[in-house]
Design brief:
CATH class of the largest domain: Alpha Beta
Strand content: 25-35%
Shape: elongated
Helix content: 25-40%
Distance between the termini: 85 Å
CATH topology of the largest domain: BirA Bifunctional Protein, domain 2
Largest sheet: 7 strands, mixed
Radius of gyration: 38 Å
Number of strands: 39
Length: about 800
């Protein structure tokens, strides 16, 4: 939100300088991001007279100008067509910084002729867009007069960061009101006088919404003004708009822009002669089109509010007008619009269509319903003053006055919530200065919240306002007193579980990322959402669906990194995924992806691409840290469709399907513009065994068994489609006391192996806790292993 100090003083009677006001605004929570002084930037520049302007000897389009400055006569090479002898212009000497370009001016030789300075255009001065010629000073002033004195620049310029709850401060008057409440000046009264009608009323206006959508446009005020002259706006108005970066267009358009920034009251003016019949404010019909003032045609849907005449939409409510009814220099009759549109509907339409406008910024934060009629009178008067004309009767559709919002405030809440005490008379003064109606006291106040403060809802809001105006710096520091030690149970069991999962993933070398919980609908369907959960009010068109998996966001992150020439990487995320519309369908998960090569290149080993084993290793390490016995997990080749069918698996613990891992399907990778292998895993944390309520004991110290192990290798002939995990589990179950470890170290198919079979070679470690195993005991366990493998897996020992 930009404004100038002279502009602020039209609403605030104050003698304070700009730096003091900037600090006061920041203290009030209206952060000043920049305080620019264009006058200071123009300090090196002066008014000069061009004594002579003759053609450049070596360039047809350049001129050699003899320029009379305060310091004497200098020669300047100039390319402006309007440079001529006798004119007054703006001169920049050597060493000056040009505001419009930021360049440092140096002495130059141009086509063989030395130039010692520059005659400046409006764009180079930073005061306009004109770059075709140099600025000509129209008034007669002495040579050497500072440029700022003749350019009429408003300065300094404030640039504020307004938080979304303070829509009223997107207008200069709202800012002035806060400063006045804080004692930084006196708020000047806003004189609103009714403008009597001097002609017939304009077109009829009708609100046409379903019964449940009256809030879409609660009030629409229109007033026709006939016989206007839409020429340039006066110099003071153009200067004010230019100072905040707005381009003056015409008197009518400049008036609407001025009201937007001055009173936070966006307006719109239609060329009344271009309207066909009466106006209806309604929802658009699916597929209707509007050619907007930005020159783009938009396809509308049934949740967008439009102003329509007999031919169709002529404006998009709260966002932008249409080209078909735009005002021009030939406009003589205008229809002034002052309305209120629902913030949510405006925000949704703006995001869907990708339109950013100053009107949308204000409407989607909520405007002052109670100011509609007053704004109509003020705007009518300004149009008559600058453009002339005869006003017709005001046409009102809807309810022009909002419901009064009452709130009771107990003074005891102030020290309880903010730690400060104020006298009742000071509390009343602050609240009245902020626009509240105040009755009662001294302990309990009955308030009516001003219509422009939609963010005020509770007593805590009143405490915040009082503390803000009184000054946060005035709140005395109080040391925190601790009466007892902080309890150990700060985190819930679920939070501890997620924290352990994060640490385990990071220990595996994965970097944590946080991605959107919203994805494009196509991504949701790609990852198993048969009935995607669409958002009613999405942030943007490509973030319109709740994610059913964490993998789409991780793949987007991988794709962005690959696009920036990062050839390999590993990321993970812990967060919710949404499997249905009910509260219980939101499940917490951890997912990770590795992409590209498995490790950095090294002279001692050949590089390899990531594969399913990398994902399995990450997943098992996380499960182990979460207290899950990985040997109890079951694997199956029924991973979801987004995994590679031959290089993936699901994991289960008893009847619970915990998740899946493996390489991702090439078609899925192509959809994310990824051309390197990707291994991924996803684990449902909510399906893991619930941690015990009591604090978990730490792990016991590792105590190696004192008796030597015995290692034995077995080669089993099994069906080709038998998962190796089933054989390993059968071997472990043969003797859970003595079988300490089981590892698969070879898979063989080929000569000597029957068709439909494969050979699995397994290393088994046997070890007792209380003795050294005898050869007979080892042989007996070996027989049990062979029997268990045959019984459970149909395996035969290869001889």
């Amino acid at each position: 939100m930009k404004f100038t100090l002279p502009w602020l003083r039209t609403h605030l009677d104050t003698d304070l300088d700009a730096p003091t006001l900037a600090q006061a605004l920041t203290d009030l929570g209206l952060e000043v991001e920049r305080l620019d002084d264009p006058v200071a930037d123009l300090a090196p520049f002066q008014v000069v007279r061009v004594r002579e302007a003759r053609p450049h000897p070596n360039a047809e389009r350049l001129k050699l100008c003899e320029v009379e400055t305060r310091q004497g006569v200098v020669q300047v090479v100039c390319g402006a067509a309007n440079a001529r002898a006798g004119m007054l212009a703006i001169f920049a000497p050597e060493g000056a910084r040009i505001p419009g370009t930021g360049a440092q001016l140096k002495r130059a030789v141009i086509r063989g002729v030395e130039s010692r300075g520059m005659l400046l255009s409006a764009r180079e001065l930073g005061i306009g867009e004109d770059h075709d010629g140099i600025v000509e000073v129209k008034v007669e002033v002495p040579v050497g007069t500072p440029a700022a004195e003749v350019l009429g620049i408003e300065a300094p310029v404030f640039d504020l960061a307004i938080t979304p709850n303070r829509a009223d401060c997107l207008g200069v008057r709202g800012i002035a009101r806060d400063l006045a409440a804080a004692g930084k000046g006196r708020l000047r009264p806003l004189e609103v006088r009714e403008v009597p009608a001097r002609g017939p009323r304009g077109p009829a206006i009708r609100l046409d919404f379903p019964e449940d959508y009256g809030h879409a446009c609660p009030v629409f005020v229109g007033r026709i003004i006939r016989g206007v002259e839409n020429g340039p706006s006066p110099e003071w108005l153009q200067r004010r708009l230019k100072a905040i970066g707005q381009r003056p267009i015409s008197a009518l358009v400049d008036i609407t822009n001025y009201f937007t920034f001055d009173l936070c009251r966006p307006l719109h003016v239609f060329d009344a002669r271009k309207l066909a019949g009466d106006l209806t404010i309604r929802f658009a019909r699916q597929g209707e089109r509007l050619l907007a003032l930005d020159g783009r045609e938009y396809v509308l849907d049934e949740r967008m509010v439009v102003i329509a005449d007999a031919t169709g939409p002529v404006a998009l409510g709260g966002i932008m007008g249409g080209e078909s009814t735009a005002v021009s220099e030939a406009t003589t009759d205008v229809l002034l619009e002052v309305a209120i549109f629902d913030p949510t509907l405006v925000s949704r339409a703006g995001r869907r269509l990708g339109i950013e406008s100053d009107a949308r910024t204000r409407f989607e934060r909520g405007l002052d319903h109670g100011f509609v009629l007053a704004a109509a009178e003020l705007a009518t008067r300004m149009i008559l003053e600058l453009c002339g004309g005869e006003p017709g009767e005001t046409v009102i559709a809807g309810r022009p006055e909002p419901e009064r919002r009452a709130l009771r405030f107990h003074l005891e809440q102030l020290p309880r919530l903010a730690g400060i005490r104020l006298e009742p008379v000071e509390v009343e003064r602050i609240l009245r200065a902020l626009g509240f109606e105040v009755t009662g006291g001294p302990d309990v106040f009955d308030l009516v919240v001003p219509s422009w403060r939609r963010d005020i809802a509770t007593e805590a809001c009143i405490v915040e306002e009082l503390a803000r105006i009184h000054g946060y710096a005035q709140i005395p520091p109080v040391p925190v007193t601790r009466t007892e030690a902080v309890g150990t149970g700060v985190l819930t069991a679920e939070q501890r579980q997620r924290s352990i999962a994060r640490r385990a993933a990071a220990a595996q070398g994965l970097f944590e990322v946080v991605t959107w919980s919203f994805v494009p609908e196509a991504d949701a369907r790609r990852f198993g959402a048969d009935r995607p959960i669409r958002l009613a009010n999405p942030l943007s068109a490509d973030l319109d669906t709740l994610r059913p998996s964490l993998l789409p966001g991780l793949l987007r992150a991988a794709s962005r990194n690959l696009a920036r020439n990062l050839g390999r990487g590993a990321v993970f995320e812990v967060g919710p995924r949404f499997l249905g519309p009910q509260p219980g369908d939101q499940r917490w998960a951890i997912a990770g992806v590795r992409f590209g090569e498995a490790s950095d290149r090294h002279w001692a080993e050949r590089p390899r691409a990531v594969d399913a084993i990398d994902a399995k290793t990450d997943l098992y390490a996380i499960l182990a840290e979460l207290g899950v016995r990985t040997e109890a997990l079951g694997l199956a080749r029924n991973a979801p469709a987004w995994y590679h069918p031959g290089r993936s698996a699901t994991i289960a613990l008893g009847p619970n399907l915990l998740g899946a891992f493996g390489e991702l399907h090439p078609a899925v990778l192509a959809a994310f513009d990824i051309d390197v292998p990707v291994a991924a895993f996803e684990l449902d944390l909510d399906l893991l065994p619930k941690p015990k309520a009591r604090p978990r004991k730490g792990r016991p110290p590792l105590e190696p068994l004192p008796f030597p192990p015995a290692d034995r290798d077995f080669a089993f002939l099994v069906d080709a489609d038998l998962p190796a995990a089933e054989l390993l589990e059968a071997i472990r179950a043969a003797d859970r006391k003595l079988v300490r470890d089981v590892k698969l170290f070879d898979i063989y198919t080929g000569p000597g192996i029957p068709e439909g079979k494969k050979s699995l070679a397994v290393a088994v470690r046997l070890q007792a806790a209380d003795r050294t195993l005898s050869e007979g005991e080892i042989e007996e366990v070996a027989r049990h292993i062979v029997d268990a493998a045959a019984r459970r897996c149909g395996a035969a020992l290869r001889r």
